[in-house]
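step=encode ok
step=design start
structure_in=
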C-alpha cells in the first residue's frame, strides 16, 4: 500500500511540474511553445489560465497530503527501532537455562612447531 502511494506521489509530482510549466506567466511560459502567437490567445483557449490555476492548486493539495501522509506512515517504524536501541541489553536477551552436563576438562597446551626456514 505504501509503495502504491509513493508511486501516486511520483505521478502527481510529474503532473504538477508539467502543469506549472504550461501555465502562461508574465513572460509567456512554456505554453507559448505550443503554438500560441503571443498576446491574449493561448494554445489551449482563453480560459486556460483559470483551468491551469485550478489544476495546479488541486495537484498541490494532493501532493502535500500524500507527502505528509507517507511521512507519518514511515515514522512508527523508525520510532520502534529507536526504542529497541534505548532498551538496556539485559531486557533484550534472555539468559540461557543452566544445563546439567559438565564442561569437558581443559586440555594441555600443545606447543606450536616453528616454521621451517625458507629455501635459499
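sequence_out=
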Amino acid at each position: 500500500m505504501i509503495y502504491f502511494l509513493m508511486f501516486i506521489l511520483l505521478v502527481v509530482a510529474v503532473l504538477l511540474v508539467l502543469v506549472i510549466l504550461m501555465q502562461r506567466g508574465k513572460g509567456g511560459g512554456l505554453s507559448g511553445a505550443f503554438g500560441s502567437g503571443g498576446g491574449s490567445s493561448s494554445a489551449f483557449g482563453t480560459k486556460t489560465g483559470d483551468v491551469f490555476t485550478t489544476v495546479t492548486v488541486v495537484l498541490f493539495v494532493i501532493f502535500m497530503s500524500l507527502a505528509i501522509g507517507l511521512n507519518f506512515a514511515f515514522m512508527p517504524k523508525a520510532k520502534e527501532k529507536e526504542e529497541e536501541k534505548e532498551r538496556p541489553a539485559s531486557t533484550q536477551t534472555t539468559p540461557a537455562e543452566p544445563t546439567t552436563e559438565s564442561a569437558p576438562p581443559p586440555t594441555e597446551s600443545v606447543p606450536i612447531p616453528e616454521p621451517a626456514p625458507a629455501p635459499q
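step=design ok
step=annotate ok -> The chain has three helices and no strands.
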